[in-house]
């Protein structure tokens, strides 16, 4: 039975290994995602409730983390979240684990009052969960990425109304 729960400190090492394994098996390869997670946990805006693991009763098979971002347009800043990273062990991919993690994280984010999320990821995967090109909302990535891989989604009706500008990640992303 699969259970999604808040991460525990005792999970950190296993999560780090899971992230490395999951990303090593992708077309883009591993790009220090585990180190990013370590840095996000040290950020003052880090919220443990937005870091979850998927456990199959024996071991961890998935992981997801949402952390705060701002979308800045001049003097106006809107606070939202970024999904980074989402990782599922290779043997459990394409079995719904990622979907369950994202659903749980979305619910937690909504309960905490967040209105929207962004993600940089596979354009053939994330749109099925409501993500679309961030540029459709007038939201820009601070780093050069293809338009179709930088996506945003409202968590509630109107969650992206009036939100546009440049995403500002936490300092943890300065790697």
Percent strand: 25-35%
Q: Could you report the average pLDDT, rounded to the nearest whole number?
A: 95
Fold-level CATH name? Aminopeptidase
**Rounded to an integer, what's the Rg over CA atoms?**
15 Å
Largest sheet: 9 strands, mixed
Second CATH tier, the architecture: 3-Layer(aba) Sandwich
Order of helices and strands: EHHEEEHEEEEE
Using brief descriptors, characterize the structure shown.
alpha+beta, Aminopeptidase, 3 helices, nine-stranded mixed sheet, 175 residues, 9 strands
What's the arrangement of secondary structure elements?
Blueprint: E1 3-6, H1 12-24, H2 33-41, E2 51-55, E3 60-73, E4 76-88, H3 97-111, E5 116-120, E6 132-133, E7 139-140, E8 150-154, E9 165-168
Parallel strand pairs: 4-5, 7-9
Antiparallel strand pairs: 1-2, 2-3, 3-4, 3-9, 5-8, 6-8
Helix pairs in contact: 1-2
Keywords: Acyltransferase, Transferase
GO molecular function, one term: acyltransferase activity, transferring groups other than amino-acyl groups
Enzyme class: transferase
Outline:
The protein has 175 residues and is α+β, with helices and mostly antiparallel strands.
Written overview of the protein:
This protein is an alpha+beta fold. It has one domain (3-173): Gcn5-related N-acetyltransferase (GNAT) (Aminopeptidase). It is built from three helices and nine strands. The protein has helices at 12-24, 33-41, 97-111; strands spanning 3-6, 51-55, 60-73, 76-88, 116-120, 132-133, 139-140, 150-154, 165-168. Strands 1, 2, 3, 4, 5, 6, 7, 8 and 9 form a nine-stranded mixed beta sheet that branches. Helix 1 (12-24) packs antiparallel against helix 2 (33-41). The chain is globular, with a radius of gyration of 15 Å. The mean pLDDT is 95.
């Amino acid at each position: 039975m699969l259970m999604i729960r808040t991460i525990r400190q005792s999970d950190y090492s296993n999560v780090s290994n899971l992230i490395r394994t999951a990303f090593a098996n992708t077309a883009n390869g591993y790009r220090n995602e585990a180190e990013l997670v370590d840095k996000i946990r040290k950020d003052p805006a880090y919220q443990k409730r937005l870091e979850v693991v998927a456990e199959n009763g024996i071991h961890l098979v998935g992981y997801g983390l949402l952390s705060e971002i701002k979308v800045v347009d001049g003097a106006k800043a809107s606070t939202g979240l970024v999904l980074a990273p989402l990782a599922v062990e290779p043997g459990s991919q394409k079995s719904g684990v990622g979907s369950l993690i994202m659903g749980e994280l979305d619910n937690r984010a909504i309960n905490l009052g967040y209105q929207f999320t962004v993600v940089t990821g596979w354009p053939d995967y994330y749109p099925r969960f409501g993500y679309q090109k961030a540029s459709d909302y007038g939201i820009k990535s601070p780093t050069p990425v293809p338009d179709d891989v930088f996506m945003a989604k409202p968590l509630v009706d109107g969650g992206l109304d009036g939100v546009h500008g440049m995403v500002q990640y936490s300092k943890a992303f300065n790697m």
